[in-house]
Amino acid sequence: HGPCQPHEPGYGLYHPGYSLYDDQIPNPKSQMLAIQNAKAYLLKSSTTSGLNLYDHLANMLTKILDERPINAVDIIENISNDVKGAQFQKKLDTLRDEHEILPTFEAAEKCKALFLTANGEGGEELEEEIGESPLPNVMETAFYFEQAGIGLSKDEYYHIFLALKKLISVQPIQTCRFWGKILGLEMNYIVAEVQYHEGEEDKETEDEEVTEEGGKGADRVEDEDEEKEKEDEPPKSTYKPPPVTPKEENGTGANKYVYFVCNEPGEPWVKLPSVTPAQIVCARKIKKFFTGRLDAPVVSFPPFPGNEANYLRAQIARISAGTQISPAGFYWFAEEGDEEGEEGRDMYEENPDFQPFSVAEMVDSLSTWVHHRQSILQQGRCVWLNPFKKSEKKEEEEEENEEEEKAEELDEVQEEIGPPLLMPVSEDEGIQNIPAWTAQPSTDLIPQYAVAILQSNRWPGAYAFAAGKKFDNIYFGWGHKYSTENYSPTLPPPVQTEYPSGPEITETRDPSLEEELAFKAAREKALAADKEEEDENDVEDDGEEDDGEEDD
């Protein structure tokens, strides 16, 4: 290779006239140049790993000095491998010490608040609260469903138990029940079904009505101002959309119960809004998976009037109306309800003289089960309401023609009558060759301790059990109704037909050159004739004036 050049590393160390073993003092300039060249060589990055020897040696020395291992020279190769491996570890943060949070730790942190009790509570007060509390025995229900292999894990059941206890301590609840769990793509929904104390729910509805009336009052003022400004505008369309079917009042029909949801036990409960008939009607026409976010939009056709919270509430109403069942005879109608007829359809109470059926009877005959929830009509309500009735009262002062048109519309509307309350399950329509319900015992090996289990085939995931005088309903599923055919979205409406063409709207054909010339010639001829007539009239007028002057 020959002697090193000034631009190469190592130049100066073996320069002629200088040796490491000589007692001569080296030239400072040549020594600094040699050091710079050597450092530049060590700083060259590798073409394969991208590392350089200078940093690698520095990291090795730092590691050795920090750890100070015994016989470091014997494990220098292992230290080198460890330093190289540390360079290729994926770091998600700029900090070196990253402590990963395990999912189990996060779940424990969420459920930590459920196990904390309020301070200052005595044992006697706790006993009184336990006796008067509307808290359901979720663990007992879980035990019965577990006999048939239905339900969640015991840990999750207990966490839901504590979450319901926390909900009851915050809300003025009279009755509470664990409704079930609806699965979602991102998160799931744990659903609680409650009833408020008398008067508490009315306060909330009054607050909602006040806010709505305040908004309407402001809208009226704005409408009056707009009418004054738009007096000179062209006429608007006289089309009137069909009347909106009002929702059922809270505590009745589809809004008889109030529902709270949360994604995980320990998270805050969120109250779902009341359901409207329009939301139920549209929910029957679409099929959407839940995301787990209540504020997520529902993109569908036909467009759904609301977000995922409204769609979830509509599906809960549909599932409850079709799958909430009980043993026949457990409920009976009150005497007042029998006299009132339709108004008393929802007024039933527990039968104190109820004699439970045996498990074999409840499995063999579906007539031993009945629906204790009102069915939802095609209108989207449990009790039919004439949509034109309200508008007729408001327009009493209109002309007779409009009243006649309304009378014709009222005649066309047909009242819907749904199945009666406490109707046997055996009368439910099947799905082609599939029965609506499937009954089976929890076990065939020990029939004397078996539990009657009923499974809905129309709403997969809906179950009911009965054991003596105890029964309950629960739902675990995606919130979709079973269909024998693949789901196909509703087709858009047909394209509007064109307006019929006639002579009154047909565009005039452009004239040809010959027609334009003939038109011009005729127009000039007509102008010339008019001019001649005017000249003759002027001449006659002048002659009459001359005759008058001669007479004078």
Automatic annotation (TrEMBL):
Residues 201-212, 221-232, 395-413, 531-552 have a biased composition (Acidic residues). Residues 198-251, 391-413, 489-552 are annotated as: Disordered. Keywords: Cell projection, Cilium, Cytoplasm, Cytoskeleton. Pfam families: Radial_spoke. InterPro entries: Radial_spoke. PANTHER family: RADIAL SPOKE HEAD 6 HOMOLOG A, RADIAL SPOKEHEAD-RELATED. The lineage of its organism: Eukaryota, Metazoa, Chordata, Craniata, Vertebrata. The keyword Phosphoprotein does not apply. This is RSH4A protein. GO terms for biological process: axoneme assembly; cilium movement involved in cell motility. Residues 506-530 have a biased composition (Basic and acidic residues). It comes from the Eukaryota.
